[in-house]
Amino acid sequence: MFSPARGKLGKGKGAGLHIPAPASPALVPHASPHKHSPVSLRGSPSPLFPWSSASPIPPRVSASPEGEEKTSSDGKEPVLVSNFPQQLRNSFFERPASRTDPGIHGGMDGKSCLSWVIHGNTLYVWNHLNSHTVQGCAVLTIPTHLSAWPGMADSNFSEDWLVCLVGWPAEDQNDLSFVKACKSAGVVMCHRRTLAVAYWPDVFKDGDTAVVTLGPGYHVEGTSTPASEENRRRSSSGWTGSSGGPGGELLNSLLASEIPGGAAQSCVVIAARSNGELWRYDCCPLGITREQISRDVGARQDVGLIAFNSSCTRSMVWRFPADKPQQGMRQLLLLTASELECWNIELGPAGKATQVWVFNILGNPDTQKDLAGQKQVWLLDLQVDDSGNFFTVLVASFSKDRLNSSSFMQYSILTFFDNNPPHGDVVRKAPLQVILPKARVEEEDVLYSMRLRIGGKPVGSAVILAGDGTATIACYSGGSLKLYQFDLAWGAGKVLDASVVPVLEEVEGSWLVLTEKSGIWAVPERAIIFGGVEPPERSLSRRSSSRDDPAKEERQRDSAAIRSTAESGGLDNRAPRSIAQRPLHDEEAEAIVGRMFQQYLSTGRVDSAREKLERAGAFEREVEMNIFARTSRVIVDTLAKHWVAGGAGSAAIMAAVSSQLIEKQRRHQQYLNFLSISSCHEELQAKQRGAMHAIMEHGEKLAAMVQLRELHNVKAQARAPISGTFTGSVSLENVEVSGALWDTVLLVGEKARRNNVMLMDREKSEVFYTRVSELEEFYACIQQHATSIIGQEQPVRTQAERLCELAEATTSAIKAAARYKDAQSSWYPSPEALTPWYCQPTVRSGLSKIASLILDLKAEASVSVPSLMPKLVSWLEVVTDVLLDGYAGAITAKVEREEEYRGLQMEYWSRRDTLLSALQRHAKEVADASVQYLHDEGTAEQQRRSVLQKMYPSLVTIARRHAGYQTLYNICSDLKDMDQLRDLMRESMGFREGRFSHYVFNQLYETKKYSTLLQFGQEFQQELEVFLQEHIHLRWLHEIFMQQYASACSTLHSLALSPSVGEEERSEKVFVKRRRVKDKIRERRRLLYLAKLSALAGGELAGGDKISKIDANININVIQEVAHEKGIVSDDVLSPLQLIESFFKSGDRDLVVRAFEVFAYAGDSFRASNRSLLEAAWLHAADQDNWASMKDVSEELGWSDEQYWLTLQASLLCQISTKCYSKGASYYGSPFQDFLPLFESNRTEEDHPSIIKSESSATSVETILRQHKDFSDAGEAMLTALRIGVSGDSLDDKELDLEPMLDI
């Protein structure tokens, strides 16, 4: 309804609304958050309300969802309540929007806190205040067979259904917390055309989404009335309207109510059709019955303010909440075209519906007094408060201004009160409250798309929802009406519905809005109070705004500077009310600018203009609200004073338009000279860059408009011989004006005329070429109507000609603006943070539409008319160049303003890659076609390369400017031109996306061209080093190639110990070939030896710490290999701790000894951090020999010293002592003796000060062994085995004298 309201502006007087007598004025009485119609009808037409290109409201910038935690906590911005459920988001991803996709439709139920959305053929229902409820989101498949009806035209599937939710009562009736999830709810869907119904009794019941259906009704055509026939005749379609008004005889309201005390999960559903018919459905899990409610729907003529069928329904609501039953029935309020009807609906099976009372709203004397002077009145929607006694009606009325005979719409709210409920003694509660005094005239289908919601904070506020997806909140603040437009800076799509946060004790909560793209948002009370603005004088719809630019909104609305030029008299003879409300210094500044400019035009001199303007405050306003910018806009938008006779395409009008454009260019240049001579230009450049930029953009648009006019002349002359044979001066005059450009001009001109009643008597083409500052509308029209402009029903050749004409028009206009900018560069301010007009979303969307259509038509023409391909591709290349420049400029401005740009950047990259890839594919197709009859491979390759070399240069130029890495790499690969590839890699393009060299490296890596990749190391050493940080399997080769042996040693050492050694990682391709599992250990050993060689090559000495560590890892690898051959461990890289634990669990004596070798090679830090494990290892080693049995056997058999020696020498304690404590022991780090001595007699602080201290109580191996269970009996033998091992002597070298060893 409203186009985006984006901030605050200077206040003007209110619209003359009546404020009720109490101290706290309220727009509407206290209302329920859930007493609204559950379905909002969404039509395509845009409505009318305040903020558009003519509105003075600057934009309101909100934080993006990604940065919502950074949003100010002062409550002045909308707050994200919940995102869409994951199931719905997945559906968006799996079924992205297309050109014919009508989008999604949805609604909210305030009482149950449930929201629903239809996407495709699926209905999603979830709790919008508690996204973490147990039941989550209900996903319901809509039975498509219910919408099939013989002879019915195809329609948007989701728009054909009305949805109503029924919350079943909870077990705990005393729980009033609104955050409690609705544990049980039913869903009713009714087809708007066929009256078919689908009913889900309990959508949140686990594993049960059974649906009960009732097929189409037999009377779907309804009753034809004179009113409906009149509505059909009056309904029209076009750019500013849509089909499907009230004469469509569709369902427009649906209500449901549970049946208290009835069967479980049973409900009564009431449906209303636009022709006045009422239908009742009784739904339960066992079935559905349908019955038409008897009601007079004949054509009744009222003596009030309307003269059409007053029985047509507009809206329905339940009068009282469901928790206030009255003897098994509920009262229904039905709003018709002129009356308010009250019905009693019996909720039992086969219950009756009886009319209780009727109140004629438009026939009421008070209402007629309020609406006196209105030509026609429409009652649009009805809402009721919690008490059921206050009725609020949204009203639209049509009127004419007696001063200038202009037509306008007025939007108001009527409030009524029932003095004798429930029998009905309805009186007006307060005078008519005007929301918008003067708005654009709209078609009826636009009016009927509006919906009213009441009950939120601020108290007395109301939300008006419109068919174009806008939501506007109206409330009183500071004694005047304020309007607040919900809008997010990054685009939330349409607003599907609104509700209120339910709170306890019947106090209204904040407003909630369900958006099309960004989930559910809450609008705090402070945001409405501080962000609301007073209604403007005239409003346009969202569609009329060419871009979300507050400056443009101001310059379209404000006509105060008209008095500054002599040419302005024909534009508007009535000064808007807002002019008198602007600050006095604005009036003075405008007058001074006008006088000084006129003085300059007549005398060529200015007298102290700058000083006078500074005193008047002319330099205080920003951007296009600046006095100088507004004056510039008046110059370029001025209409000709005198009327020119002739039709829309007459030569007289076209000649007048051309001459007027040239005159505007001359006058605008004079205005620039005036700014320079008066020294205002310097002030604007220094302090008002935005205003000066806007002034220069007016010159750019003038140049672009002149270019369009010249192009149209050229096209018209080219068609002259085709249209007929003409001679003399009459030939051009009688040529039938046609073509895509001309059709677009007429469409834009027609839209401008509809938006401004003062232009209705002007020719469409004259209006288009006059409204220079609104050139963006040209691109907006193409974006919306390009398909119909080119005529998809026409032959392919005709479509191609018209599409190329549009491409030429759109791109030549922007190029003309760029030429103007180059020629006038000295006039421009510094461009930082300023977005040119041709970089705006509207312009980009128009160009994107043309590019998409060219791609589609190219695919069709390649089969049917191949001769059209060169022309289509040529224009596609031009459009691509201009479009990508627009994206680049927009992103640059966002970055300089420190705004979020990632989303736009992703869109830019996607467009770039799509278009450049299409252009490259075409070049390759042409090259392949040129060699298809050549049989010699050498000749064919040479011919193919020659063709590509001719076609690629222009594509390379575009790709270089926009960092099209994929295209550039493919081009160099196709041409096999490594020199060009190296030249491109040396450029610093694409700084934010990453250098092109990095992209090339990655492509070579992905395609396993490792040798080519490493050859770039010498020229791009630093870049390749950065790239190989993530690819360790290749980095060591590059380091050896660069003779960085120390780095290569570290890389190889790390690679050898990494888990992925010897195999290809799944996440990336590696250089080392994939080997069988058993080769991993050998591969690790190879890498360790390479690391050792690299260290030696780098100057490391044998025996140094680095080489010793590598040797230790080699030894550990050998130990693991032995264990792997025994099947104890895998060949994956295992830590020393893992190896030791595996060895102890194996039960293998040899591996127990190997475990101590691992201790030896693991280093000091490992031994210190695992001291307890080492102590346990000694005890475990002692357990490997049966010491008690050894003693008994030796005593029983009387062993000799030799036998005793040999037995002890074979024990594990002896072997471990030899491996770790003998003179030939091998280890890494400090000796074992320094860490853990063998005997207590060896441990003295004086002799061994380097013994590492520990918290453990064990100070030697002897101390550890004393804990063994057999030490008391075989301790001497254990210690003797240790002494034999540490001595390292064999039996042949030692005289058998064990007495000294046994002496403890």
From TrEMBL:
SUPFAM superfamilies with a match to the protein in the record: Nucleoporin domain
Q: Which domain of life is it from?
A: Eukaryota
Q: What is its main location?
A: nucleus
Entry's Gene Ontology cellular component terms: nuclear pore
Q: Which UniProt keywords apply?
A: Nucleus, Transport
**Which InterPro entries does this chain map to?**
Nucleoporin_Nup133/Nup155_N, Nup133-like, WD40/YVTN_repeat-like_dom_sf
Q: Where is the composition biased (Basic and acidic residues)?
A: 67-77, 536-560
Q: Where is the Nucleoporin Nup133/Nup155-like N-terminal domain?
A: 81-521
Region (Disordered) residue ranges read 1-44, 57-79, 221-245, 536-584
Q: Does Glycoprotein appear among the keywords? A: no
Q: Which Gene3D superfamilies match?
A: 1.20.58.1380, YVTN repeat-like/Quinoprotein amine dehydrogenase (2.130.10.10)
Instruction: Indicate where this protein resides in the cell.
Output: Nucleus
Which named protein is this? Nucleoporin Nup133/Nup155-like N-terminal domain-containing protein
Which species is listed as the source? Riccia fluitans
